[in-house]
Amino acid sequence: MREIRTLVVYYSRSGHTRAVAEEIARALGGAEVEEIRDTVDRSGLRGYWRSFRDAIRKRTTTLVNSGRNVGDYDLVVVGVPVWVGAPSSPVRTWLIAHAGEIHAIAFFLTHGGSARDRVFRALAALSGRSPVAEVSVRERELGTPEASARIAAFADEVRLWMSSAELRSMKTEKAPVG
Asked: Which of 41, 68, 120, 129 has the fewest CB atoms below 10 angstroms from its CB?
């Protein structure tokens, strides 16, 4: 049986999305993890306002190229901080750049309030893919048993998709002759 290669990719300005990404990677049995790196300084109050403005205007940004081939992965799990009810600019940029390489996708959000469903729809549109799973975690819930339970349920949903994808790939492989 072929193992499903999984990449957890995320952007985190505050560290919240990073914490959830690491928890998801562990829950998925050691998926590879990559941080999306922005060339724009988003630290401090000035960086916060820059991020706010970029999200409202749906701007893209310039990212550091990781050199990783996203098409080598069967599943990409994308972690997104929500900025003013929109996907963060670095994740928007990353999805636009890699949409054509992604085979299957799942999303997780970290956010302070509402707009969860609108952001999930925007991510699906940016990636051109319906997600195999979605989960959101509010900032105030980080580190709580409730958040961990939702993350575990998300990982279970992803693993269920993985097992069905693995079964589909086994059925399409040719059996040896003779």
From this structure: 41
3-class secondary-structure state, position 75: strand
For the chain, percent helix, then strand, then coil, each to nearest 5?
Answer: 45, 20, 35
Query: Domain extents for the chain?
Result: 6-172
- Please give the model's pTM, rounded to 2 decimal places: 0.89
Question: How many degrees, rounded to 5, is the angle at CA 106 between CA 151 and CA 171?
Answer: 110
Q: Where are the alpha helices (DSSP H) in the chain?
A: 16-27, 44-56, 89-98, 116-127, 145-172
For the domain spanning 6-172, the CATH number is 3.40.50.360
SS3 137: strand
Give the tokens for residue 46: 């000035």
Residue 121 tokens read as 């729809």
From first to last of the 178 residues of the chain, give the pLDDT tens digit: 467 899 999 999 989 999 999 999 999 987 999 999 999 999 999 988 998 999 989 999 999 998 899 999 999 999 999 988 999 999 999 999 999 999 999 999 999 887 889 999 999 999 999 999 999 999 999 999 999 999 999 999 999 998 887 656 544 444 444 4
